Amino acid sequence: MAEVAIENVEKTFVNEDNENSFTVFKDIDLNVEAGEFVSLLGPSGCGKSTLLNIVAGLEQATAGKVSAGGEPITEPGPDRGVVFQEAALMPWLSVLDNVRFGLKKQKLSAEEEMERAEYFLKLVHLSKFMQSFPHELSGGMKQRVAIARALALDPDVLLMDEPFGALDEQTRTMLHQEVQYIWEETRKTILFVTHNIRESILLSDRIVLMGTRPGRIVETFDVDLERPRKPSDPAFIELEEAINKKLAVEIDKVMREEIGDDYNSKKSALLYHSHRDMGDNI
Amino acid sequence: MQVEFTTTSLPSFLGTMEQLYVGFFETQILLGATAISFYRIVLGFVIAVVVGTIVGIWLARSKAADETLGSLVIALQSIPSIVWLPIMIMIFQSSGTAPIVTVVAMAGAWVMISNMRVGIKSVEPILIRAAQTMGYKGPELIWKVMIPASIPTFLSATRLAWAFGWRALMAAELLGTGGLGRTLMDARDFFNMDLVIGIMVIIATIGLTMEYFVFRKLEKRIFSRWGLSS
Ligand SMILES: Nc1ncnc2c1ncn2[C@@H]1O[C@H](COP(=O)(O)OP(=O)(O)OP(=O)(O)O)[C@@H](O)[C@H]1O
Ligand SMILES: [Mg+2]
């Protein structure tokens, strides 16, 4: 049995005021094996966050079955750690207390709690900042605290929704290394949402490309490259090109619908083909 | 009242200082009046903060309560609380501490309620969601996330509650009995303008000290800790 099993899942939002409904996606099937690192890639609005939130239990699927570790998902739980795009740290708590905040629900002894929090802060190289407050940290540091907080719960599954989306290139590269290291150390099952093709190839075992209107899974790419991966590797570039081509088609569809007929698809092809920025800012 | 008031029609700086000295250290009339006023404001303020916080959180969390009581609060808020004094005097059969404290509490309660309601409602949803993923739910979410997250709002609201309460207290004491307000009226009746000014100085000093030195300082500390700029 897969660690995370998503079967025939549909999500429809109903607007309570005017009874309009909007189906984000349907017939989504996805299995994530234990210890596997899977990235969700797709144009904005295709429902990546929605799918992740359903697995997190923050949102309910309209139809279909979702389970984690064989148990149907009905609500959020500490077996599934979540890292959001914003670090979502409690501003009134120190870095250490933020990590302990999550542990409070785990019925640990005070020493154990302290030990775990310190261990995971060390893992993300923040031992020196344990007594700092979130407003004293940089964006990258905050995100590392959020990762430590999620990991400290020792979840079976780690769900990450564009965790590095708001960070600069250097910080992001550093955190990629950290996430790889953490994944190798802990072998968590990771479901990782991103806009960045290169990021997904760097990190994951498998890349799930989602499309929009209707939201669906377009294609799944296995990443059979040895770690640590190098973006300059020809096989890396080849895969990047292949995914980019597919993604461009989906983005084109969104643009055409949102902007209308006078939208020039050549222009977007140029925009999204740039090697410097592989679909980074879609 | 067994008070000897000297009559001066035009206030002077020296005269005012003298009245303050005499009132605090010799007759101790001002000391007593200040103590009464302070007791009333503190009592009224504490009631306003406790009741206001509880009702505010309740309104923020319960849609039914918000739709009924919420609009009532807004309606009542538009009535200056001093207007309630005559009714309170009748209810309590006294014109002393009980009705005055009630008026002070009302003055602060409305602003406490409405600010806490907004404060709790505008807690960043991402913080709540993050806590939910760590296993927090129900009342624990309120205690561990929503209330701490709205501490800055709470503090600003208490500052306003104090300020409104202090103003309401002075108005109520001018009409009721005891405290600085009453003493001020007595001084006027005896045409002791130095004392009138002296009491006004006390009122201003207490107001300023509390609002600027106590509440503002606290607010600044908390705001910077919460990563907000005041
Ligand atoms: N609470 C909601 N009510 C109504 N519609 C919603 C709600 N949440 C999301 N949607 C819609 O569902 C669609 C998918 O949203 P979602 O946030 O999952 O997209 P996404 O793929 O994560 O996009 P992005 O890459 O921009 O983060 C969007 O069209 C969005 O407007
Ligand atoms: Mg998203």
Q: So what's the CATH class of chain B?
A: Mainly Alpha
What's the number of helices of chain B? 10
Largest interface: pair, residues per side: A-B, 28 and 21 residues
- End-to-end Cα distance of chain B, whole Å, is 47 Å
Helix content of chain A: 25-40%
Residue-averaged pLDDT of chain A: 89
Write the layout of secondary structure elements.
The complex is a heterodimer of chains A (282) and B (230).
Chain A: E1 4-14, E2 21-32, E3 37-41, H1 48-56, E4 63-68, E5 71-72, E6 80-83, H2 95-103, H3 110-123, H4 139-152, E7 157-161, H5 169-186, E8 189-194, H6 197-203, E9 206-211, E10 216-222, H7 234-259, H8 265-273
Helix pairs in contact in A: 2-3, 2-4, 3-4, 7-8
Chain B: H1 13-26, H2 29-61, H3 63-77, H4 85-92, H5 97-121, H6 125-133, H7 139-149, H8 151-175, H9 179-189, H10 193-225
Helix pairs in contact in B: 1-2, 1-10, 2-3, 2-5, 2-8, 2-9, 3-5, 4-5, 5-8, 8-9, 8-10, 9-10
Bound molecules: adenosine-5'-triphosphate and magnesium ion (MG).
Magnesium ion binds next to helix 1 of chain A.
Question: What would you say about this model in short?
Answer:
In chain A, 38% of the residues lie in helices and 23% in strands. By secondary structure, chain A is α/β, with parallel strands linked by helices.
How would you describe this structure to a colleague?
- By secondary structure, chain A is an alpha/beta fold.
- Chain A has a domain at 4-79 and 155-236: Rossmann fold (3-Layer(aba) Sandwich).
- Chain A has helices spanning 48-56, 95-103, 110-123, 139-152, 169-186, 197-203, 234-259, 265-273; strands at residues 4-14, 21-32, 37-41, 63-68, 71-72, 80-83, 157-161, 189-194, 206-211, 216-222.
- In chain A, the strands form two sheets. In chain A, strands 6-7-8-3-9-10 form a six-stranded mixed sheet, sandwiched between helices. Chain A has a four-stranded antiparallel sheet with strand order 2-1-4-5, covered by helices on one side.
- In chain A, a hairpin with a 4-residue loop joins strand 9 and strand 10.
- In chain A, helix 2 (95-103) crosses helix 3 and helix 2 packs parallel to helix 4.
- Chain A starts with a strand and ends in a 9-residue tail after the last helix.
- The mean pLDDT of chain A is 89.
- Chain B is mainly alpha-helical.
- Chain B has one domain (13-120, 136-225): MetI-like (MetI-like fold, Orthogonal Bundle).
- Helices cover 80% and strands 0% of the residues of chain B.
- Chain B contains ten helices and no strands.
- Chain B has helices spanning 13-26, 29-61, 63-77, 85-92, 97-121, 125-133, 139-149, 151-175, 179-189, 193-225.
- In chain B, helix 9 (179-189) runs antiparallel to helix 10 (193-225).
- The longest helix of chain B is centred in the first third of the chain and has 33 residues, at 29-61.
- Chain B is elongated, with a radius of gyration of 21 Å.
- Classes of the chains: A alpha/beta (282), B mainly alpha (230).
- At the A-B interface, strand 6 and helix 4 of A face helix 6 and helix 7 of B.
- The structure holds adenosine-5'-triphosphate and magnesium ion.
- Residues 48-49, 161 of chain A line the site of magnesium ion.
